[in-house]
Every structure is written in structure tokens, then in C-alpha cells.
């Protein structure tokens, strides 16, 4: 193909020329014959008896083959119509995915070939070049979604305690490249962390808002211009917290009355925890102490808050006793502070001073008799010269002094 040549032969020699095409070419026929070859045409043999200088041209053409491109949904191929390609030549196509899709590789079809570029790049796509074309063939572009996988790769601590901070870390992966966007951490309609930006391929959420029990936490990736969203879940167990039971006892002067302890139960952040308390006094059992002495208090707290366990606490109560003389002097001071008639005040304090004198001498019976005389006079003036409420308080104090003398 494309060669020329000459030869010298004897006059009237029979000549027969045959046009034979190379692979990938076709013999198109004879033309331009001169001399004895002027009658040669067509594609058959050129035969003649040569009687003069003669010449003829055999024409050959390269075969052309049809390369047919096609593209599935979610992308494009260009050119998108059939292309005629000379035998042995390649042909190139630009294949672009739509946003959030990529070109599936290897590219399909019967032509074979290779590509350059990024199958995940919707702006530029890839350039696909066929191999040497030797027959009709096809190029078939397919596209797949840029799906992602979201996994909560860690959640610590697990199990946790109510009120404790738990940190969830989600990892998002998606084919080639690194997805961007945000991750939201939630459980049903409750959102714990909203739209946390990905840092690399991870996003983290820390929360102390989980209630007691079993939870299923969902991490939802938003997707971006190149990647589709996805989600993943993980189970989290939250155990009940133990409240702090604060027992409030104290030191009290003996007054003949019981002195019970009180208690509070506090939880996370100092919040009050609902429930009930049971007090046990040692000695004394369930009865609050009355008499002088030292008492330990054991408190059992029964929680009615679903986020807290039952708990216990301890405390102490001390009941001290003043001497009868000290108590009598306190009562004398109380009488002197009353706004009552002077004569009544002097009569009452006189009886109490006599009781002090008897106590100092160790004569307890005389002191008790003088205190009873004080009580009788107060009773006689109750609601009259001495207001009722004040009279009752004086009598209570006087009787408690007798109790102390009798201890």
C-alpha cells in the first residue's frame, strides 16, 4: 500500500497484476492505466500483453470501524454519538458523573482502553482512550452513587452513670477522597449534638443528658456535593447514679423534747432527689432522742427518681444538760424579761431564787417544791397578769428543770 515500482519485460509478454490489501485496508481498484494497461479498471486482476511502455495505479483505502458510545443514568459521555475510526487508531471520550456519583471503572464495552483523571470528579470527569480499533466496538459508561458508611467507632464510657459525660465518635467513609459535611447525633426526636463538622473523617459529640436505661444513639451524616448521606447506630447503657445523703444532726440542750435528725438527698449538679428517709437512732431505734447523751443516726434513703439508686447516710446527735442551777438562772432571766406587773415578777423570781439556794445546798426536794410553787403561781396568773402563751412556756421550762433534777 502506497508503494510504486517498475520492471522491464520482453515485448508482447503477458502481464497480470493483482491488488492485495494489507490487514485493515481494502483494495479499491485500478485507475490511470497507460499504454497496454489503459484498459485496466475495477478490482480484479489487471491483465494485458505489453507492447509498449505502460503504467497503472492501484488504489487502497484504510478500513473504518464504528465505535458506539453509551452512558447510563447519572452521568454523560462525549462524544455521545457513534464515531468512525480508522483501523489501528484509538479514540477518546470524556466521561463525567453527575454530582454525588462516580464513573464505574473499568469502563465497560468491547473496545478496551484506559483512563486518566478522577472518576469522582463531576467537573472534569475522566478521559477514556480506547485501544487500537480493529473492528466495530462499543464504549459503555456506567455510574454509581457516591455512597458513604457512617459508623460510631467509639462511645466512652460504656456503661456510663446518669449525669456522666459520654463521648460518641462517628467515622464517615466513602470511596476515594474524604467526605465533608456534618454529623448529627440523636435518639428518636431527641438531638444531643446538631450538625457537628467533620474533622478529617470524624465527628465527636459529648453529652451528659442521657437518662438511665438502654439507648440507641444514631449518627447521621448530612452528605455534601459529592457524597450521599448515611447513618449508623450504637447501643449505650446508662446506670443509675447514687445520690449523696446528707444527715443533719447537731448538739441540743436537754429540754425534755425529742430532737430528730433531718436529711437531704442530692444528685448531679446538686439537684434534689425525690424519695423517702428512714431514721434509726443508736440507742433508741426509730424514736428520736430525748435524754442527754450521744447518739448515732443511720439514714436509709429510698429513691423514687428513676435515675437514682437507694442510698444511706450517717450522722450524730448530742443532747447536753445544763445543771439545775444554770437552768433556774435561765428561767429567772426569762421572767425578768417579761412585761408583767412588778409585784408578780418579784414573787416569781423569789421562788426561783429559793430553788437556786436549795440546789446549791444539795437539797433537791426543797428545790422541786419551790419550783412547783412557781408553777402554781404561774398557773394562777395564766391569762391574767401573765399572757397565756408566755405562761405556758414558763411552766414548760420549770417542768423540764424538775426532770433534770430527777435524772
Layout of helices and strands:
Elements: E1 13-17, E2 25-34, E3 46-50, E4 55-62, E5 64-71, E6 75-78, E7 83-86, E8 92-97, E9 101-103, E10 108-109, E11 113-117, E12 126-130, E13 137-141, E14 143-145, E15 149-156, E16 160-161, E17 166-173, E18 182-187, E19 190-197, E20 202-207, E21 213-221, E22 230-239, E23 244-248, E24 250-253, E25 262-266, E26 275-282, E27 293-303, E28 311-320, H1 324-337, H2 342-360, H3 364-381, H4 388-406
Helix pairs in contact: 1-2, 1-4, 2-3, 3-4
Instruction: Compute the separation of the termini in Å.
Output: 141 Å
Structurally, how many domains make up the residues? 5
User: Mean pLDDT score, rounded?
Assistant: 94
Strand order of the largest sheet: 16-22-21-18-19
The low-confidence parts are: none
Range of strand content: 35-45%
- The CATH topology of the largest domain turns out to be Immunoglobulin-like
Structural class: alpha+beta
How many extended strands?
28
Cα Rg: 56 Å
The general outline is rod-shaped
CATH architecture identity of the largest domain: Sandwich
What count of helical segments does DSSP give? 4
Largest β-sheet summary:
5 strands, mixed
Short description:
This protein has 407 residues and is of the alpha+beta class. The protein has 5 domains: 50 residues, no CATH class; 81 residues; 91 residues, Immunoglobulins (Immunoglobulin-like, Sandwich), CATH 2.60.40.10; 77 residues, Immunoglobulin-like; 83 residues. It is built from 4 helices and 28 strands.
